[in-house]
Amino acid sequence: MASITATQFNLVYDVLSFSLATMGATTIFLWMRVSSAAERYKSALIISGLVTFIAAYHYLRIFNSWTEAFEWTKDGTVQATGIPFNDAYRYMDWLLTVPLLLIEIVLVMNLPDDEIFSKASKLGVASALMIILGYPGELVLDENHLGTRWFYWFAAMIPFVYIVYTLLIGLADATNSETDLTVRKLTKGVQWLTVISWCTYPIVYVFPMLGIARDDIVVYIQLGYSVSDIISKCGVGLMIYRISMAKSVALRRGSEQTPLLA
Amino acid sequence: MASITATQFNLVYDVLSFSLATMGATTIFLWMRVSSAAERYKSALIISGLVTFIAAYHYLRIFNSWTEAFEWTKDGTVQATGIPFNDAYRYMDWLLTVPLLLIEIVLVMNLPDDEIFSKASKLGVASALMIILGYPGELVLDENHLGTRWFYWFAAMIPFVYIVYTLLIGLADATNSETDLTVRKLTKGVQWLTVISWCTYPIVYVFPMLGIARDDIVVYIQLGYSVSDIISKCGVGLMIYRISMAKSVALRRGSEQTPLLA
Fold first, then answer.
1. Where in chain A are the domains?
2. Counting one residue from A and one from B, how many pairs have CB atoms under 8 Å apart?
3. In CATH, what class is A6-246?
4. Which stretches are transmembrane (chains A, B) (predicted)?
5. What residues of A are in contact with residue B226 (Cβ under 8 Å)?
6. Regions of chain B with pLDDT less than 50
C-alpha cells in the first residue's frame, strides 16, 4: 500500500463519505417519487434509484476498506496497516450500475417495446464488456508496466466508443421524435451528460501515465472516480426523473398515445 | 482450512460481494413492481423477490464467514485464522429458495388453481429432498473419500431428474396453452433457463473429482455456485417479472379469462 499523508487520508475519507450520503439521498428521493409517475415510467425511476442504491452499498464498502487500510499513529501521521485497499469494489459496482444506467435512459425514450429491449440488451452487454476489459489494467500502477495499462485502456475504449455512438447518433431519431420541446431538450441533455461524465473515467484511468507521483495516485483516482460517479449516477438519475415526470404529465393529458407498460 | 493466495482470497471476496449486491438489487426491483402487476401475479413477483432476498441474506453471511476465515499478514499474504469457512449457508439457502423458485414458475403458468397447489407441492418436496441428499456429500473434499461424494451426487440426481422432467415435459401442455406468443416464448425460456442453470450445480459439485488441486477447490466452488445462483435466481426472477407483466397487460385488455387469485 502506498504511504500517504494525514491530509490525503482525510480528503479521500471525506469524499467517500460524501459520495455515500449523496447516493443514499438520491436513492430515497427517486424511489419515493415512483408512485407519482405514470405506469410506463415507473421502471425507469426504480432502476435510477437502484443505480444509486448499488453505488451507496459499494461506497460503504470502499469507505470501510479505506479505514481498514490505514491507521493513525500516536504522532498524528497515517500508516498502512497491511490490509490492502480494495479497488475492485468500483468495478463490481460499475459492472452492475453501468448497464442499468443505460437501461434507465433507454426506458424513458420514445421507442417501441421490442426495440427498448434490444437496445437495452446491446448497450448493457457493451458496457459490461467495457468494465471487464478495463479492470485488468486498473490493477497496474507500477510505472514500468504502464504499457499494459494503456493496452486495457484502448481495449475498453472500443465498447465505450460504440456506446457513445449509440447514445448520440443511434438514438437521435427517437430523441427528435419527442413532440414536447422540454422533453426533447431533457433527453438530449441526459445523453450528453452521460457521455461527458463518462469521458472523465478514461481520464482518471490514465492518471498514473501523467507523471503523478506513485503515492499520490491512489488519492487522485479515488477523488476523480467519486466525482464522476456522483455526476453520472445522481445527476443522470435526477434528469431521468425530470423526463419521467414531464412525460407522465403529458400522458395524463392524453397528448401521447403510447402503450402502458415497459 | 485450505491455504489460498491473496488473489484467490480477493477473487472470492469480490464475487461474494457482487452476488450480495445483485441479489439485493433484484429483490428491490421485483418488490417495487408488485403494485403494477395484476392481482393474480402479485404472489409470483413477491416470491421471486423473496428468493433473491433470502439469497442476499445468505450471501451476507457467506461473505462475513469468508472474511473471518482468513486474515492479512504484514507481508501482504493471506493466512487461515482457524475459524472454518461455513459452507452450510448455501444449503440452508437452497433449502428455502429452490422450492420457492419452482413455486414462482408454477404461479405464472396457465394452470387451474388446484393444480397449481399440487404441482407446487410436489416440486417443492422433490427439490427439498434434492438439497438434503446433496449436502452430506458436499462435506467430503478429501480425495480418498470421493466415492462417498459420488454416492450423494447420484442420490440427489434422482429428484433433480424428476424436476427437470416436470419442468420440460410435465408442464408442456400448460406452456403450449398460452395464447400470447411472447408469453409462450418467455415461459419456455424460463423453464429452459432454470434447467440449464441448475445443471451447473451438479457440475460444480464434482469439481473435487476433476483433479483440481485441493487448495483451489474451495475457490472454484464458491465462484461456480455464485454464478449459478445469480443466473437461476436473478435471471429467472426477472423473466418471471416479464411474464407477470405481459400477462397483467393481457388481463387488463380482457383478452384472457382467468381467475383473479393465486
1. 6-246
2. 57
3. mainly alpha
4. 12-31, 43-60, 94-111, 123-139, 151-171, 192-213, 219-243
5. none
6. 256, 260-262
